[in-house]
Amino acid sequence: MGVARILHVDDEPESLAQAKEYLEGEEIDGWGGPEVVGISDFNDAMSILEAQRFDLVILDVRLGRHDAADSPPDEEEGVRVLEEIKARRFVPIIFWTGLPNLVRDLETPFVRALEKTQGLGSLLQSVQALFATHLPSVNRALMRFVEAEQRGYMWDFVAPHWEDLGMAADRISVAYMVARRLGRSLSRPGIQRLAEELGETGTSGLPKGKVHPAEIYILPPVATTRPGAGDLYHDVARGDEEGWWLLLTPTCDIEWKKADNVILAECLKAENHPDVIAWGERQNAASKAALRDLVTQKTGGQDDRELYLPGALSVPELVADLQRLVNVPVGRLTEMDRVASLDSPFAEALISRFVRYFGRVGTPDLDFDSLLPRFGPQ
């Protein structure tokens, strides 16, 4: 991944010098010794972050004396810089300060607060712990991948075909093309390249035509999109074990306010499904075949009734039952947590499955034994 780069912002030159000397003398697992850039002017933090790449930022909270009269936390320079960073980019933050209590309520897994009196060893431990989450490496690899795709598309396609495309004044079309190309590039081949760059092994081991469970979802859903078919909801009021629902109403009906009510299919925990239970109890050929049909989302006839939804991050292992339907007012959706959306073409396949299941027509079977003589001597 290269050298870990850390930006340290503190108005005390001695603190900057001590942290730089100590941290650069240590190693971060998988990265080696870090490079620490120290600046004493909080106002320069964003311009430096815009011009250079950093994997982590260490921030002091207060500009000036720590024994000065307390000011509201949101008026502290370190808090202001944090909010500016969060508005523009992702990078983990460590508040290393004499006033950690001022920022305790801002702590998350990627924003930490340390008292300077805990010593440089404690700072190093927090730095190493944040790099151990692998988010800095994922973040760096993703940014490099996006830039490479954008650079290649503009130089290799748009630039040489600019006159032919006839869109010198049509910047929105270029933006659409780049965005769509980037979205396609970030599908399975791109994900595998990212994983390989991150040192993951076996990333190309999926058989051709197979997908990783995480590829099924957009998780979390894009906040600016309206609810629609394939959205997975959790009714948190019912608790973690129950209350999972798959939306079947088309997006356009909700978008254009044509739907007063929506249809939801109940999703049950996969561990409670008869085929999963049977496999756990018997593990024979018959139970394996039934489980394979369920997990591989076999279609046709009664197989269309149930749709297996693999677990991914906050989504548990679920089975949507297209017989267990409810019809609720569209406003009910705002009372539930929209956890994920099925990506294309899985959302479209869900609707096809739903229509096929309820649109099927049953007919009596022909008698095979009576017809067999028609095809030759027995």
Count the helices. How many? 13
The profile of the biggest β sheet is: 7 strands, antiparallel
Low-confidence spans: pLDDT under 50, at least 5 residues? none
Helix content: 25-40%
TL;DR?
With about 375 residues, this protein is α/β, with parallel strands linked by helices. Helices cover about 35% and strands about 15% of the residues.
What would you note in describing this structure?
By secondary structure, the chain is α/β, with parallel strands linked by helices. The chain folds into three domains: 5-133, Response regulator (Rossmann fold, 3-Layer(aba) Sandwich); 138-197, no CATH class; 214-359, Roll (SH3 type barrels), CATH 2.30.30. Helices cover 37% and strands 17% of the residues. The protein contains 13 helices and twelve strands. It has helices at 13-24, 45-51, 77-88, 120-132, 135-158, 162-165, 171-185, 188-197, 251-255, 274-281, 285-295, 346-359, 368-371; strands at 5-9, 35-39, 56-59, 93-97, 111-115, 217-218, 231-234, 244-247, 261-269, 306-309, 318-329, 337-342. The strands form two sheets. Strands 6-12-7-8-9-11-10 form a seven-stranded antiparallel sheet, covered by helices on one side. Strands 2-1-3-4-5 form a five-stranded parallel sheet, sandwiched between helices. Helix 3 links the parallel strand 3 and strand 4. Helix 5 (135-158) crosses helix 7 (171-185) and helix 10 runs antiparallel to helix 11. The chain is elongated, with a radius of gyration of 28 Å. The termini are far apart. The mean pLDDT is 87.
